[in-house]
Design brief:
alpha+beta, globular, 173 residues, Nuclear Transport Factor 2, Chain: A, six-stranded mixed beta sheet, 6 strands
Length: 173
Amino acid sequence: MKKTTIIFTLILYVFGFTTLSAQAKFEKEKMSISKMLDDFNVAAAKAEYEKYFSFFADESTFIGTDATEVWNKQEFKVWAKPHFDRKKTWNFTSLKRNIYFSKDGKLAWFDELLDTQMKICRGSGVLEKINGSWKVKQYVLSMTIPNDVVDKVVSEKSTLEDVLLQELKSSKK
C-alpha cells in the first residue's frame, strides 16, 4: 500500500508540475503578446509607419470599422501611408485585454477594449509566432454600440448602408 501511495503521489507531482510549467509558459507568452500589442498601439500613435507595419505578418488582414474596410497588409499600408505621413494617425490604449492560445502554442487570439478617439472600441485578432516573434495575422477593429442607443445608430447609418447592402446582395447572386 505504501509503495502504491508513493507512485501515485509521484504521478500527481509530475502531472501537476507539467501543467504548471505549461501555464507558466503561457503566462510568459501572454506578457510578451501584451507588450507587443502595446508597442503596436504606441507605434501607430507616434506615426511610426515602418515599426507599426512590422507587427503584421506578411500575409495578414486588417478589418476596419467600415464594412468596406477589409485589406491585406499591402492594401492597408497604402491606405494608411498618407495618415502616417501627416502624423494624423490613431491613438489606442488598451483598457482590458484577454489572450488565448492554441494547444500547441503557435497561435494566439485576443480581444481588448480600447480607449480611442471614437470612445470605446474593440480590437481583436489572431497572432502567429513567426521566427520567434508574435505577428498579427488578422486584426479587427470594431466600434462598440451600447444597447440603449442601437436603434439610433441603425437609423443614422441606414441611408449609407442600405446602398451597400443592395450591392452586396446583388454580387452574391
